[in-house]
Amino acid sequence: MLAGHHVKEPGYASRRAGGTDDWLLVFTLTGQGRFGSSLGDLLVDPGSITLVSPGTPHDYGTAKGAERWEILWVHFHPPGEWLEYLHWPSEAPGIATFEPSERMAREIESSFREVFRLCFQPGKRRLAVAMNALERLLLLCDECVPGGGIALDERIRRVVSYIENHLRQDLSLEVLSRLIHLSASRFAHLFRTEAGMSPLQYVSLQRMKRAATLLERTTLSVSEIASEIGMEPFHFSSRFKAQTGQNPRSYRASRMALNRPRKLS
Fold first, then answer.
1. β-strands 49-52, 95-98: how paired?
2. What does CATH list as the number for 2-144?
3. pTM score above 0.90
4. CB atoms within 10 A of CB 96
5. Which of 15, 33, 101, 259 is found 20 to 30 A from 58 (Cα to Cα)?
6. What would you report as the CA-atom Rg of the chain, rounded to the nearest whole angstrom?
7. Where are the domains of the chain?
8. Helices (DSSP H) in 196-259: which residue ranges?
9. How far apart are the C-alpha atoms of 116 and 70, rounded to whole Å?
10. How many other β-carbons are positioned within 10 Å of the β-carbon of residue 90?
11. Each residue of 84-140: pLDDT tens digit?
């Protein structure tokens, strides 16, 4: 998880043609912003909240003519059970945005600020505490998003459960689509519609999440962890670094340093 509070100047723009492999949640505090899409620009005003799904091209910034765009934002990888909280009706491919009531906007802003604060608070359970606050924020949004509260398709729920419990096994598109008796193309379309990302993106995220847990809590070697999540060691190390910015050994060392008891002075 990574969170921030920025005030963007006129003309500010950020573009990533391939998007990112995580979710992006943005709350507009003041000014006006824009999110570009294949359907044109979506303008966001103070009090609005925007959700961008993994793999969606990023093209956002200060709206034309606006003097500023002040935002709270958070990038995150959700646990599988959060997918229903993220099942928002889209305004454009991969982008959902809405304006809650004034009362709910104040509550969402307060919750968002707490997520931001906790992301930078020291402590060995910092991330767990921040994720707990983020779940509360998403639940608040789920209460008031228009058309929200829609349950995941039961077929996709079954696939998600299978993935999380069979990370060592072959989780190709063909294997997963057979679980619910759909063609690979139809399954891939349904999964993206329901979960906001492709099946293989979801598989990769769950494997990296499991690997991070094993690196933090066990003494298994990198090769053994790669086997536990059904990957070759080199491919695992490369993918893990792409997602976390650290190779597995460096990640483990950094987490050990964070969790090491401090000496009393």
1. antiparallel
2. 2.60.120.280
3. no
4. 23
5. 101
6. 19
7. 2-144, 154-259
8. 199-217, 222-228, 233-244, 248-259
9. 14
10. 16
11. 888 887 888 889 899 999 999 999 999 999 999 998 887 767 788 999 999 999 999
